[in-house]
Amino acid sequence: MSSDTIIETTRTVPDRSSSTAWFWWKESKQLAPLIMLLIIVAGLILIMNVISTAIVNPGGFWLPDEVVLLVFPGLFATGAGPLMVGQERSLRTMEWLALLPISAKRLLSTKLSVAFAGLALMWCVVAVGIALFGLGNPHDANWTIGQRPSHSDNPISYPIWMVHSIYVLLSGFYVSWRIRHTFYALILLIPLAFAPMIAVGLIAAYNDRPMMSGTYDVLIGVFTLLGIAVMAPLSYRAAMRALGPERAPAAVPLLELPRRSSADASVDETAPRFGTRVAALVWQSIESRRGMLVLLVAMLLVSLLAFIRLCSIDSRLRGIDQFLPFVTLLAPLAVCWLGTAVFKQDGAIEQIRFLADRGITPQTVYYARHAIPVAILATGLLLYAGWALTTVGGWDRDRTPVPSLITVAAVVFLFYSVSQWVSQLVRTLLLAVILGPIISVIVTVWLLTAYTQLALPTAALVIVSLLPLLATRVVMRRYMDATDRPLAFVVAAGVVAAMVIVPIVFAIAFVRGVPGMTAEQRNTLLAEAHSARRQTASPVQLMFLDWRSNAERTLVPDSQKDLIEKIRNSLNANSQDPRQWINGLETLRQGSFPLQGDFYALDRFQSAFVLHRMRWRQDNDAESFERFAPWLDTASVLLKGLRRSRQVAQQEIADRLEVTLIETLRTPEMRPHRDAPAVRSAVASIGTPASRAAARRRAVLASWVQRQDPQSRSSRDHVAALETMPRGLVAWLDEPLYESFVLAALDGIQASKNRSDDGSWRRRLHSLASPKGVFESSQYSDRFRQLPAAATMGENYFAGPGQLWGRAWEYVDVAEFLQAGDDTTSPAPGITSESAPSEPTATPGSQASEPEASNADPSGSADTLSLRDSIAANNQITPTEPIR
Amino acid sequence: MDPVITTDALTMHFRRCDALMGVDLSIQPGTVFALLGENGAGKTTLIRILTGFQEPTSGSCTVCGIDPLRDPQAVRRQIGYVSDAPALYDWMTVAQIGGFTASFYDQTFLPQYEAAIRRYDVRPEQKIRHLSKGQRAKVALSLALAHDPAVLILDEPTSGLDPKVRRSFLESMIDRAATGRTVFLSSHQISEVERVADTIAILHRGRIRLHGQLSELRESIHEVIIDTDDPLRAIAPPPEPAEVLTEETSGRSRQWFVRGLDPEMIQAWRSSPGVTDVRTRVASLEEIFVACTGELQAV
């Protein structure tokens, strides 16, 4: 290179004429790693948000929490002092700087000014972020600025966050001027940073009552301002002392030790002897960071004791115990820093280079560096396990839950694994100490979320968790030779990619494993579904006009009545004419409106219906039939209305009502009344397998297409199997699972229509609609379906739809029964609880047997008592006793 | 002429050792002063006290008439200092660190710095992080010299420099001294010191063992080899004020390094019974250094 070129290049230095400009430039550049760290953390949080949103809430975006943004200036304030002062001191550039003609005051003031400017900039970014994303909760604010309501419901107000960040900044400078060792400085900074909160907590503990949020905020503000007033002069004094001549040791030895030059020390006197190479490495590993290890072990023990104390308290935390949750946080911090200590501590790099120069293998050094931290963590886990074995498990709302050993071990392993990886990747101790815990938390939360909510298999979790350890092992040789870059970054990129991609791949595989419809099926069925939905008129809601007012109900507390009277009142409640009791009945009768009701309404109607049926059958005279006839007529109107509905739930209700109606019509006592208008109307309302199949098919398809419209979709409008799926994949699984349900339901409907049942649709419906049980003991099983329909239909819709499809009641000809001779007295087969089982069986490939009326048990009563009847029976009301 | 550096009974006790024990020095302006000593002898401690980084346990010192403890900034404005392992901002480029440092000095700093790095053939756009040890030393020297300090304090300055640059640098030290500037050099490289130093001091176990003009010291210390007829024959040591710095016996020969040797002493030995031959010569600086820092110092 020619001289001219050199001069030209030299002159390309930005023209900063004043030393102040140069000084600001230099200090700002020194903050660059911290800014980069914050950008990385923000980026990671954003990426996790994007991934989480994409998985759980496709199409949307979850904004970061307001507190996440508010924490960033605090992080900046924490790192600024140690980076601008602590690092300069440990790298000895401070001495070089002190050689320049700069006064100590100017040096201190410039560093502080740059740090404050950076902090102000951070707050500007935060303000823009809060305004841009519309964070905060202005409607529920706890504090005010002047007379104006604030913007946030955060218990600590924005001004106090700002003042506190200034306090933390000054504290960071103080500890960095005071303590040369960066790690110890940061350790001291933790209690200092939380000192105002601790002070307020102590006041609350002294008063033994929780504080109002406003008082809490003001007190923290007061203590923080007090902290600033104390820290400012302390920082100044510490800086002046650090920048002045180092003081001579003042301590005079109590014993007169022989004075000698350091060159006198004999190797024979001081050199430790080691039997093996590993022993020497372990010794180095302990001795080089003894203070650090002692501190971290102390943090772990204190945290464990705090957690034990926390778990022993079964009431609200009071007094000094309020600090226990915060003290327990020392443990994860200690675990992360044990990981950090593997590759970063004062002098760690030199120690590793020393070993590399002596030909020690990377493998030996790697394991030796990990040996002590791993031993400490293993001992800690053993202590935890020992204590956990003595505690009673289980969930108690008032007690702190005790995580299982495997959970704690997994979290500890992830924290350690990630922190040691970060410590190898990052150059400076300070950044490793701050970044390690943050990245560890993010990775741990991500992987454990993937495990619990994204169907990440255990084996994959273990492998992905091992990747950071594997990465540091792969890079170890180059790290020892100081040639680890750019390989370390390439490997790191691979680890990050694997951590992100592997859970996503498993999640995609899981979603794809759920069979939905083929595109062709979907298109065909959607066309039919849209057509079915369009043909629906507005539904009439099933509503009861109760004879008792709410006020009357509350006049006499239930607890003061005796049981019999309660039952009597309950029965009398439904003793009126259904035509006056049910709203909109005439509309239903005259029009073609579908009916919409819920299972509770049906249960209420059915209870009243069965009660009146029992009274009629007990009296069995013309007068009692006259009283019962309106109920029969009403039931037929309701049934028709329900069958017109395009909702699966309404068809299920219709099935149950129809079973009750068929059961009623199939009683011998009904034959004399077969020409009564109510009976004729009831017989006419009974459908055929084909008409029911058509109604069900329309309902299944219309419900499917309806749920695709977000406006008309309800939160319960999903198949039950979705509730057993990984929560994070629910949004992706909802549609294919429902499609599977639609296909299974359509197969079931077709099988019922054709009276052919190979059981496959029932197995599919069971797995989708009631996935928690075993099929063989479920309500879809052959055994269950052999029971009479009326005895099994209670409120079991919640255990899955389609349980009544294709069963014997569907194929009963009521008109034929009523027209038959008087000697036929048996109830409907397969309907009542007393009837013989003769439902279509589920033998694959076989045709279900036709239920034969003549095969039915002739001895039973036609009245099937539902749940309400069973309760009455349990309360020793004999069936023969008239209940009025 | 007032000395540019003085120390008076300078003592520094650390917890487990005494780094300096009553060090008295007086260095005249316009000289190249070399402080010699073994590792751990206290050289760096002395320099740290002189530059105001370390407070001594007792004693006092001045640099350019200023007490570095009272006003370290004033001292540092007068001096240029290069430590044995200069700590520079490794994220800066050579040009940037020059520009940064120049902003605290007058307008002459930057041209001088640029000339220096041009002379040392260091590329200005290179980051300090990527420089070799020798190149870092060159940058550190350029920064220390660019403001033309009255006193240049160098702690092992040539460590890492190649022989050509080392020679050139050392010659420039002589030139500086010729212009009235003072160079305070701490080094192990005896041959280099011998070539450039006017005054030397040998520091051993915290004490100044020898201090004076190099030429005078050379004349005052002699190697004396006395051959005898019997290895067990006793030879009387030279009378005071002469001082035997080291003694070594090999067969019938006895080797002494003697300070303040007088021709009459030689005659006395020659006439002693059993002495077959007495040979003397002026000791080299290296021999003087070894003699002063050897374990066996006196008979």
From TrEMBL, chain A:
Residue ranges of the region described as Disordered: 821-884
Keywords: Acyltransferase, Membrane, Transferase, Transmembrane, Transmembrane helix
Protein's name in the database: Acyltransferase
Organism for this UniProt entry: Roseiconus nitratireducens
MF GO annotations: acyltransferase activity
Superkingdom, natural source: Bacteria
TM region(s), chain numbering: 34-55, 67-85, 112-136, 156-176, 183-206, 218-236, 292-310, 322-343, 364-390, 402-422, 429-448, 454-475, 487-511
Biased composition regions of type Polar residues, renumbered to the chain: 822-849, 872-884
TrEMBL record, chain B:
Listed InterPro entries: AAA+_ATPase, ABC_transporter-like_ATP-bd, ABC_transporter-like_CS, ABC_transporter_ATP-binding, P-loop_NTPase
CDD domains membership: ABC_DR_subfamily_A
One of the record's GO molecular function terms: ATP binding
Transmembrane segments annotated in the record for this chain: none
Keywords (A to Z) from UniProt: ATP-binding, Nodulation, Nucleotide-binding, Transport
Domain ABC transporter: 5-230
One Pfam family named in its UniProt record: ABC_tran
Family: Belongs to the ABC transporter superfamily.
Protein name, as recorded: ABC transporter ATP-binding protein
Organism field: Roseiconus nitratireducens
